[in-house]
Amino acid sequence: MLKVIHDLNKAVAKKLTKTKIKFDFLYCYLKAKTIKLDSSIDKLNDFVFQECEDILCPLQIRSEISQLLEILKNLKPKTILEVGRSRGGTLFMFSRIARDDAVIISIDLNRNEGKRRPALYKSFALLEQKLHTLTMDSHKLESKKHLENILKDLKLDFLFIDGDHEYNGVKRDFELYSVLVRKGGIIAFHDIVPGSPEKTGGVPDFWNEIKTHYKYKEIVEDWNQKECGIGLIYC
Q: For the chain, how big is the Rg over CA atoms in Å?
């Protein structure tokens, strides 16, 4: 009898968890539509870090991504490429500092996003924005060609590299997509702070190799944090 009760409780708990997840996605979907372009950075952060934390929370330090968003607000990008989507938190924030007719592309190798997450991402696009979430290997030439077909004759205003953190992986993403960035555009790398291989991989080494060849900026809350940190290159 006790086993029956235990199994029943587990089944109920599982169903309640699924119901909560479904409700959380619905809430984030509807709420995203109410957050307009040029909303305050604090409002964007509150949405992804608090209100929709379980669904969208980015693997970022709030103060660091805030500084990046302030810079991008001034740039007002029309074309954005994000390499590495994770849970979509940065994708949402980028959509809100972009122009109302922006072309926003996010590429990620994750093939287990389910049905709810792609629908949620579609809700990020406002007004005349075009948002493309691609499930592809960013290291392959056909992925680059697919991006070029979307961009047509446009160059990128902003490139955010936060995908494969292995040295050769981040190098490959930079070599493939940096050539698509216009003069005056910005390239950003995430995880430039030296840390464990599991968290930052070879990104800090690659960053230190290339940064001095460009005008650059480092956004780091604490160099002892052993992860995160954002490096900007001005093209």
A: 19
Query: 42-65, pLDDT tens digit by residue?
Result: 999 999 999 999 999 999 999 999
Burial of 196 (0-12, 13-18, 19+ CB in 10 A): exposed
Higher pLDDT pick, 7 / 130:
130
Strand partners, 219: 230
For 159-193, the pLDDT digits (tens) are 999 999 999 999 999 999 999 999 999 999 999 99
Through-space distance between the first and last CA atoms of the chain, rounded to whole angstroms = 69
Kind plus residue range of the DSSP H or E element containing 160: strand 156-161
**Confidence bin at 20 (pLDDT 50/70/90):** low
Best CA proximity match to 140, nearest among 122, 113, 163: 163
Q: Each residue of 104-154: pLDDT tens digit?
A: 999 999 878 888 999 999 999 999 999 999 999 999 999 999 999 999 999
What are the structural domains of the chain? 2-234 (3.40.50.150)
Residue the block writes with tokens 């235990």: 6
Give backbone dihedrals phi and psi of 100, rounded to 5 degrees, phi first.
-75, -10
What is d(CA 193, CA 9) in angstroms, rounded to the nearest whole number? 45
Q: How many residues does the chain have?
A: 235
Provide the 3-class DSSP secondary structure of residue 27: helix
List the one residue out of 152, 153, 157, 161 whose CA is nearest residue 76.
Answer: 157
Please give the structure tokens belonging to residue 174.
């930079």
- Between CA 93 and CA 44 the distance in angstroms is 6
